[in-house]
Amino acid sequence: MAAIREMPIDAPRPGRRFAGGWEARAASVPATEFTGDFFATVEVEGAVWFAVGDVAGHGLESSVLTMMVQEELERLLAEVCCPDPVETVRALDGAIGAEMPSNRFVSLVAGRAEADGSVRVVNAGHCPPLVIRADGTVETIPPGGPVIGIAPVTCWCPASVRLDPGDRLVVYTDGLLEARDEAGEELG
Predict the structure, then answer these.
(1) 38 near 52, Cβ under 8 Å?
(2) What is the pLDDT of residues 50-85, one digit of tens each?
(3) Contact 42, 74 (CB under 8 A)
């Protein structure tokens, strides 16, 4: 299971290697003492499951909800009860929906990467993941449905991409977009 590590943005990020030649790199730099952002990487049956998400809000309440969401997500992934990312997102929504306060929700990107380079991704109202091809071109994976924890009935549509050697999938939270430069301006 992945743990959130605090490190400066310019610090080298050690990668974690998985079967099939996959490598995951992650960093979390909370803006305050508490964070609502989370990530997970789990290798199951030769595939690499990954998720990056954000519980709406700030402070201790969002941080506690984040731990709940991440624990449930990691349980779902480790048990492989949902072999498809859409099923995983649906199961997570069902598990946390009753526990989520009405003023909170979760945005999430979850996916499963196979050894052949195929990746199936579900974007539940999160920042759009980017595919950076080896030649430098950038593709965007659009949202596939609403955020988690609000609506009683929801539907998500997956996206499929193929990553070749040298390609990268970049998944991030709004914390990156809202980070400020030395002059105090948001990076966007």
Answers:
(1) yes
(2) 888 888 777 777 777 878 888 888 888 777 666 789
(3) yes
Exposed e or buried b per residue across 62-73, where buried means at least 16 C-beta atoms within 10 angstroms of its C-beta: bbebbebbbebb
The pLDDT averaged over each successive group of 10 residues in the chain (188 residues) is 36 62 67 70 84 80 78 79 82 82 84 92 92 95 88 86 93 68 70
* Number of Cβ within a 10 Å radius of residue 107: 23
Q: In what order do the strands lie in the sheet with 130-132?
A: 138-140, 130-132, 168-170
Nearest to 170 by CA among 70, 26, 44, 47: 26
User: Sign (positive/negative) of CA torsion 170, 24, 2, 26?
Assistant: negative
Residue 61 CB neighbour total at 10 angstroms: 15
Smallest CA-to-CA distance from 148 within 77, 75, 98, 112 is with 98
Give just the sign of the alpha carbon dihedral 16, 21, 22, 26. positive
For 138-154, the three-class secondary structure string (H helix, E strand, C coil) is EEECCCCECCECCCCCC
Q: What CA–CA distance (Å, rounded) separates 38 from 7?
A: 14
